[in-house]
Amino acid sequence: MTAATTPAAVRRPHLARWVLRLHRPELLVWAGLAVLGAALLLWLGGPLTDAAADGWRQYKACHWSEKCAYDQDAILRYKDVYNYLTFSLAALPLLVAAWAGAALTGRELESGTAQLAWAQGVTPARWLATRLALPAAAVTAGTGLLAFLHDRAWVAARGRVDTVKSQWDVWTFQTNGPTIVALALAALTVGALAGLVLRRALPALATAVVAVAGLWGLAQWVMPYLWPTVTRVTGFGHAFGDSSGGLGVDQGLVTRTGGHIPEPRCHANTWEGCRRLFEKRGGVGFYYTYHPDTHYWPLQLTTSALVLALAGLFTVAAFLALRRLTGALRLAPEAAA
Fold it and tell me: Fewer CB within 10 Å: N-end or C-end of the chain?
């Protein structure tokens, strides 16, 4: 037997090929979802948007005579399809987390497949690295494509369809840029970590989904504070403060000393009554702290960077959990002896 075909080399499996073969059904399902989602988003950004835009032009030109008609079905169809596709794309990180926790690590540890691979010459670190790298490439490609097409569909409707969502809408913001890709990658690492810690498929699945849902909410909560805000101050001539435009972060009253205080509730029937109340509390005007539309991409990128940093921490934690697990498995036979 030559050096190229030593027993160790024969026993050592081609790990990447093995992972692809083992998870081929899931890979095909993921590819199918990506293709289907891409087709629907192209439909949304093309024919559906054009039909809805025509419906809105008809509506605006309508003088509400008895014969006035507009394509209401096209308007409602666009709205429904947009919402369904946006919610589906936003839920992809949960799907990735469930799969990673249940199948990628949890099931293999529960069934003993992982231990068998380690016994055949595959180091645990290489085993985990391969299981994270290959799905990460598929997740990045799939969610990246869908996020790009979702943003193109949104841009196609902006200014043409009156019911188009604001770019600051929670669901639209998360699915219109790299944030959704970062969340999907973080979901992969969270699921892998849950499987390594719990070593059972169903508990790991549930834990990963709950954790990623919390991460999704955390990303949206901290997002407005990841980039410097702009504060606009107005006098009481602008009733209740002109807070239109951008992403609002805070608003209230400006005092005589220049301080900011919360805007008190006013139940008066007239603006003059509310103004007297505000002046009684020491207010001389309004302030409005917000992100203008030009902050959209800085916030997208900083939010994505934060989530990716957390994904890196989860990855490190997964390797540490694996080292602790394999150390415990090595000590068990020694203790039994």
Answer: C
| Whether 211 contacts 310, CB under 8 Å | no
DSSP per position, 164-211: PPPTTSHHHHHHSSHHHHHHHHHHHHHHHHHHHHH-SHHHHHHHHHHH
* Residue range 256-310, pLDDT digits in tens: 888 888 887 877 777 788 888 888 888 888 888 999 999 999 999 999 999 999 9
**CA distance linking residue 25 with residue 166, whole number of Å:** 38
Are residues 15 and 125 in contact, defined by beta-carbon separation less than 8 angstroms?
no
Provide the number of structural domains found in the chain.
2
Pick the more confident residue, 217 or 112: 217
Domain shared by 277 and 260, yes or no: yes
Q: Is 256 among the domain residues?
A: yes
Do 209 and 234 sit in the same domain of this protein?
Answer: no
Region for residue 157 given its phi and psi (left: phi exceeds 0; alpha: psi -120 to 50; beta: otherwise): alpha
* Tens digits of residue pLDDT in 151-168: 999 999 999 999 999 999
Tell me: do 170 and 244 sit in the same domain: no
Residues comprising the chain, all counted = 337
Is 300 domain-assigned?
Answer: no
**Structure confidence at residue 70 (pLDDT):** 83
More confident residue, 239 or 306: 306
Q: Give how far the C-alpha of residue 31 lies from the chain's centroid of Cα atoms, to the nearest Å.
A: 19
- Domain of residue 115: give its range: 13-225+307-336
Query: How far is it, in rounded angstroms, from Cα 196 to Cα 92?
Result: 22
Above 90 in pLDDT, residue 187? yes
C-alpha–C-alpha distance, residues 118 and 61, integer Å: 71
Quick one: 211 and 284 in the same domain?
Answer: no
**Taking 50 as the threshold, does the pLDDT of residue 7 lie above it?**
no
Of 75, 177, 195, 87, whose CA–CA distance to 135 is shortest?
195
In-domain check, residue 2: no
Sheet containing 260-262, strands listed edge to edge, beginning at the edge strand earlier in sequence? 230-235, 283-291, 247-255, 260-262
Query: How far apart, in whole angstroms, are the C-alpha atoms of residue 173 and residue 299?
Result: 10
Q: How many CB atoms lie within 10 A of CB 242?
A: 12
